[in-house]
Write a structure and sequence with these properties.
Rossmann fold, alpha/beta, 5-stranded parallel sheet
């Protein structure tokens, strides 16, 4: 299963050629996004006030399952965050929640954000290259 990070969702909405080629090679039933990444996308759209982006996002949400943040994910977040803090590693709060969502759901995180490589238990792929 592949979980799309916020920048991966943006790559779809912007029609990134390399990303779209990789996406087309996968089945949508094997792709999801976390509710945290979805919230970030919706926030960005609200800030821009773009009806076109809103329609594009809504269309995408009909194709890609949005995984809720639940108690299991919260427990994994706490463990990951504490372990990374002990190692002197840090992600932004939202990225830490997205990482926990991917780990909790046994997903490969699709992102071009190198910060996620700090999470040792998280497999990461960049589809923009």
């Amino acid at each position: 299963m592949y979980m799309l990070d916020t920048n991966a969702i943006s790559a779809i909405m912007n029609g990134n050629v390399a990303f779209m080629q990789r996406l087309r090679a996968k089945s949508f039933e094997h792709i999801c996004m976390s509710s945290i990444a979805w919230a970030e996308i919706k926030y960005g759209i609200c800030k821009k006030g773009s009806v076109k982006l809103q329609k594009s996002a809504d269309s995408l949400a009909k194709k890609i399952r949005i995984v809720p943040f639940n108690q299991q994910t919260a427990d994994i977040y706490a463990q990951l965050h504490a372990a990374m803090e002990k190692q002197g590693k840090n992600l932004s709060p939202m990225d830490m929640l997205i990482a926990a969502s991917a780990v909790a759901n046994h997903c490969i995180l699709v992102t071009n954000d190198q910060a996620f490589l700090q999470v040792e238990t998280l497999p990461v792929e960049d589809w923009t290259v």
